[in-house]
Amino acid sequence: MQRGSEAPLRELTSAGFSFPRVRARRLRLHPGVRSLVAETRLDPSMFILPLFVEDGLKSPKPLRGLPGHFKYPPESRELVELVSRALDLGVRSFLVFGTPSMKSFEGAEAWSPQGPVQRAIKFVRAELGWRPVIMADVCLCGYTDHGHCGYPRETPRGVLIENDRSIEAYGKISVSLAEAGADFVAPSGMMDGQVAAIRSALDNAGYTEVGIMSYSAKYASGFYGPFRDVMDSAPRFGDRRSYQMDPRNRLEAVKEVLLDAAEGADIVMVKPALSYLDVISEVKRSVPWLPLAAYNVSGEYLMLKAAAEKGLVDYETVMLEILTSIARAGADAVITYHALEAAEVLKSGKTPF
């Protein structure tokens, strides 16, 4: 119960708003009635499907850590067919991640016109035009030999990640993705000022129409393991706790979101989703006018897949329950590996509720 709701409830009860005159179950007795008065509604158009491309592949490669998902060659019919299938199911938005053939300290492949994500975007655009909403991850961890989201530097305090030099690279990456045809760039590095640097770079290059979906409240989480395995993007030394958020903090997420909004973010994000529903709710309550995405991450996806494989849960029921909980908490969009499966269930008209 939300704070402040007890007094109105007492007033209603004293006015006769109680059993047997009021029977709350009347609105729960039939699936049609439940759907009619449901407070939260899922629709495939609110899902964002992650896509993975890798240089040098000859054919799609199944992902051990993400069962049911593949890495694709950047210019492949299979990738276009996947996007087409998603569009037919009502999933319109896609978040693209890339793995280069060669990594380096600078991670220059991240902003190369011939980078895997850039080539994939151009290929999908040539085949499908502007029907899909294409978002592209902006970070360095998958492109660098050290695996950090920014550039490490030796200091008297030990190795620190350089903030300002890193966000300069984010600007270059973002412009290259805009040139390729991205609708949105999605900075995930959690560097201070990353949104402002990217907005400035995009505007100066003439891409004022390209939006920014910022990983505003990205927590230092153990739920990213399967994704890092897929992308070979785990840090080679240390960890990311000096730049990703402390899981013990909730209100700090609001500060991060407000900073990103002031710098020009069009959509903000909370990541992960399932263990941070309270943060999603707090952000939406505090900044209701700003579109909010939540990332239902790889570890959350794999836990459900593993439980379903063992016959411990009904997969479709729990999948929709999880996605509904994320939307109910306040997310306007959900980045999820369940996107196609959930869209298929919703399109069929089946519901566990």
Automatic annotation (TrEMBL):
Q: In which pathway does it act?
A: Porphyrin-containing compound metabolism; protoporphyrin-IX biosynthesis; coproporphyrinogen-III from 5-aminolevulinate: step 1/4
For this protein, the Enzyme Commission number is 4.2.1.24
- Catalytic residues at K218, K271
Q: Which UniProt keywords apply?
A: Heme biosynthesis, Lyase, Magnesium, Metal-binding, Porphyrin biosynthesis, Zinc
Q: What is the catalytic activity of this protein?
A: 2 5-aminolevulinate = porphobilinogen + 2 H2O + H(+)
GO MF terms listed in the record are: porphobilinogen synthase activity; zinc ion binding
Self-association state and partner proteins as the record states = Homooctamer.
Q: What is this protein called?
A: Delta-aminolevulinic acid dehydratase
Q: Which organism is it from?
A: Aeropyrum pernix
